[in-house]
Description:
Helices cover 29% and strands 31% of the residues. The chain contains eleven helices and 15 strands. Strand 11 (183-187), helix 7 and strand 12 (207-210) form a beta-alpha-beta unit.
Amino acid sequence: xxxxxxxxxxxxxxxxxxxxxxxxxxxxxxxxxxxxxxxxxxxxxxxxxxxxxxxxxxxxxxxxxxxxxxxxxxxxxxxxxxxxxxxxxxxxxxxxxxxxxxxxxxxxxxxxxxxxxxxxxxxxxxxxxxxxxxxxxxxxxxxxxxxxxxxxxxxxxxxxxxxxxxxxxxxxxxxxxxxxxxxxxxxxxxxxxxxxxxxxxxxxxxxxxxxxxxxxxxxxxxxxxxxxxxxxxxxxxxxxxxxxxxxxxxxxxxxxxxxxxxxxxxxxxxxxxxxxxxxx
Length: 280
Ligand code: FES
């Protein structure tokens, strides 16, 4: 059992959970993830490690409620425990000095991009971070990202705070300006990463995305997380999660991600109808 040291709803439907996990904290590197199981009958879900503290022996994840498992996870509180926590998994982000790096994050990706932005800054790069949300009330970790970036750009879909628009709009403005960008990292929903990659491709700027395909074992055994990159089948859990966004077959990824949508909706409806008292 892995104990929850801290649980906080950062903004509606997006939660921070800090676990006591000294062995994982000792080895965690930017870009890696863990697989959790909320209880012994629960499904396994991958979550990017947003932060870790070797001294405290803790790791932090930030996740969005999207289905039954994440709703059940969101109901846990400080002091509760989950059944299993496996990690760190995946190949760490490649950190080196390249010049100017743009780190973009949307939804849970605002937290997931944090360790990469920090590491790229420590490696001597100029870091420009861009975060997006549909509206002001869904933004979080603005100060945290500012502290590890030379420049932080915030954009909101409804224009309620900062310029109205999305990450591709901000990327285009940077590319058309004076700044020479050497590398982009993008973490967030698949659609945002697809659009960010499509925006950078005509400018020939290498774009690293963190693919969030459906996973089961997370160790390259089940094949569930397979993605098509540069015409080759790759396993996101062991060959990634980092891939070249210009090489990813986004249509295949989006279609595989929605493969269980009907069952997921059914599962959520069943769970909510059984637990309506608890969720009200
Ligand atoms: Fe099973 Fe990647 S999750 S092979």
